[in-house]
Every structure is written in C-alpha cells, then in structure tokens.
Amino acid sequence: MIIDRFGRQFQNLRVSLTAACNYACTYCVPDGKKLQPATAELDGEHLLYAVRLLIDGAGIEKLRITGGEPMLSPKFEPFLRGVCELDLHDVAITTNGQFLPKYMPLLRDVKFKRLNVSLDTLDASHFRSIARSGDLAIVLQGIEMACEAGMKVKVNMVPLKTANFDQVVPLLDYCLDRGIELRFIELMNMGHLKLNDQYEKDFVSLDMLLDAIRSKYEVVPITAEHDSTSIRYEVVGRGTFGVIANESEPFCRSCSRLRLSSNGHLYGCLSNTKHYDLRPLLSMPYPLALNELQGVLSSAMGDKQSIAFTGETTVMKFIGG
C-alpha cells in the first residue's frame, strides 16, 4: 500500500469501460464530436484482472464504473457482474441515464445500490443544446425507476453561466422532492476548455451557486467524509446537496482517487497527463504482476497535486470521469 507525505493512499478507483459516449456535452467535447472508443480497449476479462490487481496492490475499497457512457459498452453487464463479486466495500456507476430503463432488470438482479446520473437541466430544449443528443424524458424515467427500486441515487449537474444557471434551483427542487442528493460540479479547466476563453465565460463559483440557492432556501454546511470531493450542505427542513468545488475550495490534499482508462492506462491525477500502461502486467502471473504494480502505484501517487487542480488538456471522460 502506497502512502505519501500528506497521508494520501489510493482507496477509490474510477474505471472507464469505454471512451465512447452517445452524448457530446458542450463542456466535455468540442464542436459536437461524440467521443469514440479508444484504440485497443481492454476486453472485460483483462479489465477485471486489472481491477483485482489494484484492489490487492493499492488497497482499493470503492469502485466507480464510468465512461464515456459505461452502459454503451458491451462489457457493461459482464464487468458489473464481475466487480459485484469482488471484495469491495462499495460499487457505484456514473451514467447519463439514457440506458437506465434498459438495464434496470440487470441492476435489480445484482442488487445494485448506488447510482449517479448526470443531468444538467430539466428543460427539454436546453437539454438537447447542452448534451447535443439524448431524450430528457427517458433519463427522468430511469431516475424514477432507480428510486422505486430502492437505489441510492445522486444527480450530478455542471452549472454553466451561459447555458443552465437558471436551472440550479429548479433541479435542486426536483431532487429535494424525491430524496435525491444533487451534486453541483464546478466546471473543470480541462480538455478543449483549457485552450480557449469559454471556461471563464461559463465558470460558476461556489459562492455564486450558494447565493442562487439562498435566494430561496436556508442553507447550512454539514460534515462530509474526510476524502470526499464534495462539500455538503443541508437545505433546512428539506434535504441535502453537495458541491464539488474543484476551483473554489480545492480538495487535492485528501484525494484518494485512482483512474483506469478503458485502454489500460492508469492515472494518478486529473491535473497530470502522465499515465502508466498496465497492459504488460495483464499477461504476467498474478504474484509477479502484483510486485510490478507497486512501482507504478508509487509513480502515480507522485503525480498528484499537493494543493489544487491546475488544469490539463486531457479529456476527463477518457480517463474514468
């Protein structure tokens, strides 16, 4: 197990099943280009082998299945069934929700418990202009089905000044009415946004967000887990919400996250393009691969920022969200 001078260790793993996505969200990809599968994506068996190595070699306790859009991948069902049998404290999925109704029987079958759905607006026309694809009604149907199945559902929203800032309170109302925790995610200075001025035009800070919410609700801060990326708040008498305030209140010093891309590249930090190819390890006998992994993990930990995210041109959805 690798522990650095800040006491950080890898406990949370994000696994990207595919870089492909059926959406082309404005804050994720430029010019409406849908994300395509990466070259030489690992098959499900090798991806599970890599996860087993990281559980034993890094001390991973929590795993999140991401993409692109994970439910778009043919690996989704066998991979989900496989990780649900591993020694993990928690398994979650981040999805855009477009395939939730289709996969609800599978999620019920494996007794799946935790789901994050990306949703930036409740306005159908604005939904299409931001996601540049998809059907809002299907996403909302999937959320309702997950709630009815007893899953713990969170909704992720990226507030943008020019596109959906007027949806901050309506989306919060929608979530509070259903006992769903809404998480606002500050826009990250990554990918194509790193290369132009759109980031500054669209960025919504923590203070701006709280001012908008406090125009309607009484809001008080509450305690979050030590390594949580989210600052949590209570809407008095109604429920809770969180803010991943990457820019306003950086959380790098307590980050426990590790990311595995669909083509077998391991990333220690979103703020660093450095990555490590695990594919050579996946043809080794398990004990030898586990030994080789320690050096990789040490290097990946060294890539983490000490204070705050500094931005990178890497597209987040290529490296596990």
Features:
single chain, about 325 residues, alpha/beta, twelve-stranded mixed beta sheet, 9 helices
Helical run tally: 9
Biggest sheet: strands, sense, closure? 12 strands, mixed
Low-confidence stretches: none
- N-to-C terminal Cα separation, in Å? 24 Å
| Percent of sequence in beta strands | 15-25%
Provide the spatial order of strands within the biggest beta sheet. 7-8-9-6-5-4-3-2-1-10-11-12
Number of strands: 12
Give the proportion of residues in helices: 25-40%
> Would you tell me the structural class of the helices and strands?
alpha/beta
- What radius of gyration results from the CA coordinates? 19 Å
Mean pLDDT: 90
Oligomerization: single chain
Describe the structure concisely for a colleague.
30% of the residues lie in helices and 17% in strands.
Overall description:
The chain is of the alpha/beta class. The protein has helices at 44-58, 76-83, 100-109, 124-131, 136-148, 168-178, 198-202, 206-214, 286-302; strands spanning 12-16, 62-66, 90-95, 114-118, 152-157, 181-185, 219-222, 231-235, 239-244, 257-260, 265-267, 276-277. Strands 7-8-9-6-5-4-3-2-1-10-11-12 form a twelve-stranded mixed beta sheet, with helices on one face. The chain is globular and about 60 Å long.
